Amino acid sequence: MDDDLVWRPLDEQARLIRTGEASAKALAESYIARIGRFDPELKSFMCLNEQVVEQAARIDEALRRGVECGPLAGTCIAIKDNYLTGDLPTRVGTRVGELQFSGPDAWVVARLRDAGALVLGKTRMHEFAWGATTPPVRNPWNADCVPGGSSGGSAAALAAALCSAATGSDTGGSIRMPANLCGVAGIKPTFGLVSRGGVVPHSWSLDHAGPLSRTVKDSALLLDVITGADPSDPSSVAKRSEYASACGARIDGVRVAVIANYFTEDVSEDVQRCFDEALEWVRSEGLSIREHRVPSLRYGLAAIFAIELASASAWHDRAVQDGLTAGYTNDVRDLVDMGRFVTAVDYLHAEQIRTVMCREMAAIFSENDLILTPTMPIPAWRVDQDSVRIRGADRDVLASSWRFTFPFNLTGLPAMTVPAGFSSDGLPIGLQIVGKPYAEREVFRVAHAFEQSHGWRTARPPRFS
Amino acid sequence: MDDDLVWRPLDEQARLIRTGEASAKALAESYIARIGRFDPELKSFMCLNEQVVEQAARIDEALRRGVECGPLAGTCIAIKDNYLTGDLPTRVGTRVGELQFSGPDAWVVARLRDAGALVLGKTRMHEFAWGATTPPVRNPWNADCVPGGSSGGSAAALAAALCSAATGSDTGGSIRMPANLCGVAGIKPTFGLVSRGGVVPHSWSLDHAGPLSRTVKDSALLLDVITGADPSDPSSVAKRSEYASACGARIDGVRVAVIANYFTEDVSEDVQRCFDEALEWVRSEGLSIREHRVPSLRYGLAAIFAIELASASAWHDRAVQDGLTAGYTNDVRDLVDMGRFVTAVDYLHAEQIRTVMCREMAAIFSENDLILTPTMPIPAWRVDQDSVRIRGADRDVLASSWRFTFPFNLTGLPAMTVPAGFSSDGLPIGLQIVGKPYAEREVFRVAHAFEQSHGWRTARPPRFS
């Protein structure tokens, strides 16, 4: 029973704990035991909350006494290591000890605790969220492969049932890429919907906080709790809605768009097959699919590189001046050094491209409710692999990895990844569902229907079942 | 009568024309005659509207027939040469013929014409609005002196009664500085209140469009007409109010703040005397004056330089690539070249300083209604003068010139200059009145009361009376 409980959706875990059919203490103990057994290989956690079993027992006790403990009471959330936590250390994936990150709980962490959730531990991330591989974390579906990044620890832990759900942050795809490669769900909400208060910044105008979960409804439940305006993040807005209730609503009449340029280029055959199957499902549901073009995507990589490099380097400027970047890993130090040479003219042109892209996307949304794309052009790659062969051409894995996710960081649109099949090698492949600003309900509605019709939520990486 | 009419406030001109007591045709003819007489020396106009007398005659005719012609019917507005005009050429102050600027009337020009105003001509400006002197325009109060810039032609024309009112644009002080140095009123409205649609950009996030006029109420009347949201300027907002009706309202209870750092440094004795007299008037009206500090002003010059240099150079990037900047005047070409070397990291740090400054100003406005400062630390300087002695120290005139105006471009707050006295050499000195966002009514209310109590509006440069 308990070993099964760890695989259940957070939604069901919370219900069983609330009704007394399951025990929060037993769930926390099971996760701790599984982490002890599996994490030496996966390396998804940076540190654990030593008090979690005791805190879970207190939840059980309070519920027995009839105390209201919140909608997430007793569930065990893994927190990405760039979220500040009052009771656990925060390292943001760096080994440079001179850099200290401390403070009270981040907004999202505080909201989760308010809702009764337990913080299970902090998950490993690509250093400073500036990368897509998250060494040394491994992919539960194939331990020779990367879990993706930068929220790689959160995705790997979730896919191996080492937690109920997890938090991530997404600047160019850092929630959606690892969720996609590890076969779980994850959403980058509309820019501003979820506060980044207490999340160590990477690139202010691109950073988003959001959840990863095993089911679509779990992400919606978490969003029900973590949205809201936070004075400590001036970008955050009071636009919260009810999200979980959208899961299960009818989807007829939804107008679906696909983008006929850029998202059709350099897509691996396995990914194309899964995407075509997803569109078949859309048609089988009687929904319309229209093709559009977004010409500015041609300049998208230049735009996000200029903005992300520059703003990350602005944030690391003090560390550069203090000589601390010498201790960064090579790839991150190179990016920080490169970012110092982006000119303000480049930056402003990049912001102009971004404005054009927002307008082109808005034009699509004037006639459609959702855009569907593959989440990534390729499935997970081996940790030692730096190029991948796509339809006869060698492509850089890092350049390929975020091609389909970063446009929605530039435009701030809500974008969710949901499992959509497997490669011939048995690696997960995801579908990306993109909505209008603040139309997360629409995204969840269709993502949930897609998930229900496919039953991917029962898929477990064989070695961790 | 006609020669007196040219000096009257636009407000009175419009009323006399509407009632038939004065003729629009005679007014236009008088201005054309005065321009013919005085402008060979002042050089305030780039070109004249050859149809203006005919258009004025049609206004007279329509009014005689009882046709409603708009609140500004028959008044003669001088348009700064960076506003596009459908019927007159636009040169943006440059002699580089390869650069073409054409299109329909700018938003502000179209609104003025809708209100019955006549476009008298285009006024000379500092090349691309990137400077504070506007050669070869001269100051009507002393033809050896600069009129200020970049709207120098508008201010000089207005001060010499060569037009009813004028438009300007203000990126670091380009409305308020020439208005101040030429002894007229001018307002930089809240960022977004007046559309920049059809105004050739200088620095997107700092540019403001606004009026210059001989009286405070005339600026308010013009704002009544030119505010409103314009789809062609995404920064413009629908926040219009009624402004002219604020002129004459009681001012008791208004809470006045002064800034006790930065605005107290390197102020010439004449300017300090006029400012002290203005504060005496405030006290005599029974209003409170509180002192505050804005520590971030220490970094203000670095911030506006990084932002303005970078965004101007981003706009001129194409001209740089096409080799056209070789034809720019030396000072403007140097600024464009310098701006290419601002890094994006500098730019982002500048935007952070700006955010801090906005917060510090907001803190002052949480307890006060207005901030008063001198408009500039110095009166007009000679055209060949590049340093000025202030209290025993030599200061660069250009660096001094915009010190008190640019903080309100960074913060986007509404800021008006109103004549406040004269230097010992007989040169005009202004008072700057700054309000909360969109609180232009409050600014006009106090500016009008100040003006009425002093009667500066009757001051005429001796040689042009």
Detailed description of the structure:
2 copies of one chain form a homodimer. The first copy, chain A, has 465 residues and is α/β, with parallel strands linked by helices. The first copy, chain A, has 15 helices and 13 strands. Chain A has helices at 2-5, 10-19, 24-42, 52-64, 107-114, 152-159, 176-182, 216-226, 269-284, 300-321, 330-339, 344-365, 397-401, 407-410, 440-454, and strands at 45-48, 76-80, 118-123, 165-170, 185-188, 208-213, 255-259, 288-292, 370-374, 387-390, 393-396, 415-422, 428-435. In chain A, the strands form 2 sheets. Chain A has an 11-stranded mixed β-sheet, sandwiched between helices. Chain A has a two-stranded antiparallel sheet with strand order 10-11. Chains A and B meet through helix 10 and helix 12 of A and helix 10 and helix 12 of B.
